[in-house]
User: Fold Putative ribonucleotide transport ATP-binding protein mkl from Pseudoprimorskyibacter insulae.
Amino acid sequence: MIEMKNVHKTFGTNAVLRGIDLSVAKGSSLVIIGGSGTGKSVTIKCILGLIEPDSGQILVDGKDASIGDRDAFLARFGMLFQGAALFDSLPVWQNVAFRLLRGSLKRPRAEAREIAIEKLRRVGLTPDVADRLPAELSGGMQKRVGLARAIAADPEIIFFDEPTAGLDPIMAGVINDLIREIVVEMGATAMTITHDMNSVRAIADNVAMLHDGVIKWNGPVTDLDTTEDPYLHQFITGSATGPIAAIR
Ligand SMILES: Nc1ncnc2c1ncn2[C@@H]1O[C@H](COP(=O)(O)OP(=O)(O)OP(=O)(O)O)[C@@H](O)[C@H]1O
Assistant:
C-alpha cells in the first residue's frame, strides 16, 4: 500500500505538486496520466525518495518512506525507465542482474545469471540474448530487457515510466500485455506513467489524473468512458478545447 498525503513540492517559483493525495492498494495497478510537465515523474521520485517533498507524508505499508534503511527500502522496488536505460557496455544478462550483482541483493554470479536468463525467458527472450550487448537489440527487445531487469529481484512494487514510448503500436500492445500479466502473476503493486491511452486501458486497475499540481480525477479504469469530469474527458479524447489550455 502506497499513500501520499497532501504532498507539496516547489522548485524555485515552480509549484509542481500542490497537495497530492493518492493511495495505491497492495497488488493493484495505478496509472498516472496528465499533460507534459505536470509532475508525474516528480511524484514517483518523491515516493522513491529521490526528491524530498517540501511537506506532506508518504507512507509505504503504513511506514514513513523517508525514515529507516534506504537500501532495504529501495530493494522492495523495481523500475522500468523511459527508453529502457540499459548500460551499453554490459551484456544483457548483467543489465538484467544488475542489482543481483552488487549491494544488499547480491547473489553468487552464477545464480544471478540463472535468474537473469529465467527473467529474460519470462519476457519472451531466448537465452542466447543474454550474452549480447544492448546495442545489438531492437527497441522492442531492449524494452523487454528493461522489463526483465525491473522484475529481476522479485520486487513488491514496480514503477513503469512511459513503458511504450518509442515503440510501434503492435510492439506497444505486446509490452502492455506483458506488463499486465507479470504484475498480476507477481501480485506486485504497480504505478505507471504514460501518455498512451492504450497502455492505460491495458495496465490500469485505477487511474489518477494529475493537473495543476493536484489529482484532478481518480477512479477505476472502467469509469474512464462514462466520466463527466471535463479535465479527464478532454485528456482522453485529446481535444484542443476544454478546461486544459492547449498552448503551454
Ligand atoms: N530536479 C528538478 N529541479 C527543478 N525543476 C524540476 C526538477 N524535476 C522536475 N522539475 C520540474 O517539475 C515539473 C514537472 O516535471 P515532471 O518531469 O515531473 O513532469 P512530467 O509530468 O513527468 O512530464 P512528462 O510527461 O513531459 O515526462 C517540470 O516543470 C520540471 O521542469
